[in-house]
Amino acid sequence: MSTATNTNATKAIIEYDDKSVRQFMLASIIWGLVGMLVGVLIASQMNFRFMNFDTSFLTFGRLRPLHTNAVIFAFVGNMMFAGIYYSTQRLCKARMASDLLSKIHFWGWQFIIVCAAVTLPLGFTRGQEYAELIWPINIMVALIWVVFAVNFFWTLHKRNEPSLYVALWFYIATIVTIAMLYIVNHLSIPTSFTHSYSIWAGVKGALIQWWYGHNAVAFFLTTPILGIMYYFLPKAVERPVYSYRLSIVHFWSLVFIYIWAGPHHLLNTALPMWLQYLGMFFSLMLWAPSWGGMLNGLLTLRGAWDKLRTDPVVKFFIAAITFYGMSTFEGPLLSIRAVNALSHYSDWTIGHVHSGALGWNGLMAAGLFYWLTPRLYGTKLRSVALANFHFWIALVGILFYVAALWIAGIMQGLMLNAVNPEGTALMYPNFLETVQAIWTPLAFRLVGGTLYFVGMIIMAVNLFLTIRSGKAVNEKREVVLLQRGQKDTMPLKETFINDPIAYMLGGMLLVLGFIFLPAHANLASLVCAGIFAVIAVKKFRQSHHAWSHWYEKLLHNYLPFTVLTFVAVVAGGLIQIIPTVVVSKAQNVEDRVQRPYTPLELAGRDIYVSEGCYNCHSQMIRTMLPDVLRYGDYSRLGESIFDHPFQWGSKRTGPDLARVGARRSASWHFNHMRDPESMSAGSLMPRYPWLFEEKFDQKALPGKIAVLAGMGEPYPPKTSDVIKQEAIEQGIKIVEELKKEGLQTTPDMKIVALTAYLLQLGNYDTPKPKDPEANPAVVPFPLKPGNPDVYRSGVKTAAAP
Amino acid sequence: MEVFAVTLFVSLLLGGLFAALFFAERSQTGRRSLEQQALLPLDDGAPILKPAPTELSAPDSTPSR
User: Is it the case that residue A577 has pLDDT exceeding 90?
Assistant: First the structure.
């Protein structure tokens, strides 16, 4: 049935697909409630250990991934799709290209979420943050993302508005970048239907994981929401965005710079120094575009600030944009290596993430839903007072949350890093002392999170009552049809060969020359970059009409625009990752190399990953005196070289385990896993009774070892029977050792495998010493890509035991 | 009567000026400002006053070009 009724040759009536918008919005609200409820539960586990209920599927290690995945991909993901579907149709003045693809997208995404909600509590995980979902779900995510992309770009192709508005640029960047990041980081080889090993190990895995992880924040939680801001804020305040030119600068600088910042998650670790500095520099540079975007949003309210008092939608939007500004100020601050030495692994980072997630994403979502619901159901918001109440309770909740975690993170960071004046001993050698010191701020965090969750419930009730008072309506508009001649016509030559691109590319190469070239040559490059910039500005002033015309033309051509966006985001990743990925393993070890796992240790490691131990324990001793004093000699690149996936971790709710093997006995681990408090009074760690009742999967071991050997790990060829026999023989040795302490178990139990894994942590071989090159201890600049990090071996750790 | 003449003259002058500037603006797209793009979210097209039935249209109902 056609609803298009030509009123004359160039006009038609369009009925928008608002059903998909409604579906995504409702899904976002429901999953948001689920994700935040799980968040409140796991926050309570940080104060009250009994909240783990001694049950496998309710432990922190398994539920934390559920919380993060639910909030990121289910709550924000569905909200993003609702905003994109609504605004793209209006900005293109066209219905979404295919109702079928929209349906597949919606139901496919919900099916993925349900699969995640089932598999994560069951312990099926890839063991990488925000990339935990197992390989069959990864494939579904990639397919559904492609469906979304096809539907979106097809709609752009069919559009009736010649120019692409700024919101669409951000959506384009989101779609192409997330596809690239997700696929590269999730490359795995399956060992069974529910298990796989990442093809990336050790430092390669760490670098790619945080290239993905950081940019999941950038391109899943930020760019689409910025697009939503650029569309819905002007709608809400009924005036255009403050500066369209500023939005151009905001977009291109943000998408180009963001992708480089990933290594700031790995500061002071075994990651080569040049990458750490690159990550830090680019994170600091992110301040400018982020604040440009924030100011562009806030100043859109010019002359309409009175709406802040009367319109809850504007309240939510403006508070959200303010939180965007605050969290994008805090992020670069935390990326400074000296600050990061204090903040990393602490609750400060968790507070920072939540000022973005609750403040920026959550409040934008609320503003969007309060604005959309009355329009999608042809009615009025049921209660403005309740919406205002939601705003204040959410705001107070976030402030409680963030302030409490500032206090907790800084306090614990200071305690963990405190050493005596001589630098020979820790001031707080007992890790648990620092955990107990932050009990009160963590309790305030729980209160803050609960308040925010209550606000979400209030919103859900208010919107439910609003929906009940109205009826679903699809908006219809009369639009002028775009003629065929007005469609995309920009050839590749015109896209790439022009002054703006030439000056941008030239300037970029010269700046990269400053970062990477040898001494003196780098300064020459910097001077050239300065001269080049002056010439570029002069040229722009002379021919700004031509430059503007080229950009306007680009905005009329979505394919060239998409290609340029992809080039901008791919550049940073290539320069950072290729030098690390192509280096051979033999070169990638520094002075220590990991011993390949025995079959039993491998089984134990898979249990460690499955239980989500990495959520609370790192395996990376940083090149910092307090870390070395507390945990042992700093971690080398070679010590995790066979780890698929790496387990460096990003939070220390418990202590680092990189060298725990030599420090604890089998019986200690046995008793500790059965009842942590019996070995560490005041511990928050849950009990793991099921590890004493369940057997590890012996049958899977030959297949797993075959996959690892296939990826080049040094496993000699052995038959399945030999592999299983070796596992049991090592288990018998551990059981006999336990028997001496009066502890009973059998060699095929999960606890035995896990103990075998924990006992070997910190073991390594020493490869032949290489040519003793000059190892400058000074800060490396210009940066010199390469592994191993010749600069870091100059960092003497005198206190190493 | 002079008042009428002056009023008529000035009005015609302003009207002519308006028309000249209007057509000049229409013909010279090079002078358009990028900032005009910022108005796109506020340009919804003409509203259809008749209440729309829900969920009836097929994707191919979007007029093709």
Answer: no
Which residues 460-489 of A are in CB contact (within 8 Å) with B? 471-484, 487
pLDDT for position A780: 53
In angstroms, what separates the C-alpha of B8 from chain A's closest C-alpha? 37
Identify all chain B residues contacting A475, using CB atoms and an 8 Å cutoff. 52
Nearest CA in chain B to A92: B40
How many H helices and E strands in chain A?
31, 6
Chain B CB within 8 Å of residue A3 CB: yes
pLDDT of the residue at B58: 39
Alpha-carbon distance of A41 to A436, in angstroms, equals 19
Q: A631 CA to chain B: closest CA distance, Å?
A: 56
A456 CA to centre of own chain: 23
CA distance B16 to chain A (A): 29
- Within 10 Å of residue A564's Cβ, how many Cβ atoms? 17
Structure tokens at A724: 């299983």
Among the partner residues B39, B47, B52, nearest to A240 by beta-carbon distance: B39
Instruction: Choose, out of B33, B39, B62, the residue to mutate when testing the contact with A (most A CBs < 10 Å).
Output: B62
Residue A80 lies in a domain: yes
ipTM of the complex: 0.73
Confidence band (pLDDT; 50, 70, 90) for A778?
Answer: very low
pLDDT of residue A8 exceeding 50: no
User: A156 with A284, same domain?
Assistant: yes
A549 burial class (0-12, 13-18, 19+ CB within 10 angstroms)? middle
Q: How many distinct structural domains can be found in chain A? A: 3
Do A293 and A355 belong to one domain? yes
Chain A residues within 8 A of B45 when measuring between CB atoms: 14, 93, 477-480
Indicate yes or no: CB of A95 within 8 angstroms of CB of B57. Answer: yes
The share of chain A scoring above pLDDT 70, in percent, equals 93
CB A257 within 8 A of CB A175: no
Candidate from A91, A481, A551 with C-beta closest to B40? A91
What is the average pLDDT score of chain A?
91
B48–A552 C-beta distance less than 8 A: no
Q: Is B38–A17 a contact, with Cβ atoms under 8 angstroms apart?
A: no
Does residue A715 form part of some domain?
Answer: yes
| A166 and A218 inside one domain | yes
Domain limits at A753? 593-767
Q: Phi, psi (5° rounding) for residue A11?
A: -120, 150
Nearest by CB to residue A476, choosing from B38, B52, B55, is: B52
Domain CATH number, residue A725: 1.10.760.10
Does A263 lie in the same domain as A206? yes
Q: How far apart, in whole angstroms, are the C-alpha atoms of residue A270 and residue A589?
A: 10
- Token duo for residue A389: 């109440």
Confidence class of residue A797 from pLDDT cuts 50, 70 and 90?
very low
Residues A461 and A563 in one domain: no
Same structural domain, A219 and A334: yes
In a domain, A2, yes or no: no
- Last residue of some domain: A587, A602, A633? A587
Q: pLDDT for A603-646, tens place per residue?
A: 999 999 999 999 999 999 999 999 999 999 999 988 999 999 99
Euclidean distance between CA atoms A431 and A682, whole angstroms: 11
Q: Could you tell me if A457 and A542 lie in one domain?
A: no
pLDDT over threshold 90, residue A531: yes
pLDDT beyond 70 at B57? no
Distance CA A619, CA A640 (A): 9
Of B45, B59, B64, the CB nearest to A98: B59
pLDDT in tens, A111-167: 999 999 999 999 999 999 999 999 999 999 999 999 999 999 999 999 999 899 999
> Is A137 inside a domain boundary?
yes
Boundary of a domain, candidates A558, A587, A616? A587
Residues A132 and A46 in one domain: yes
Q: In DSSP terms, which residues pair with A378 in a beta bridge?
A: none
Which member of B37, B41, B65 has the closest CB to residue A231? B41
Tens digits of residue pLDDT in A491-525: 888 888 889 999 989 998 998 888 888 888 889 99
The CATH number given to whatever domain includes residue A33 is 1.20.210.10
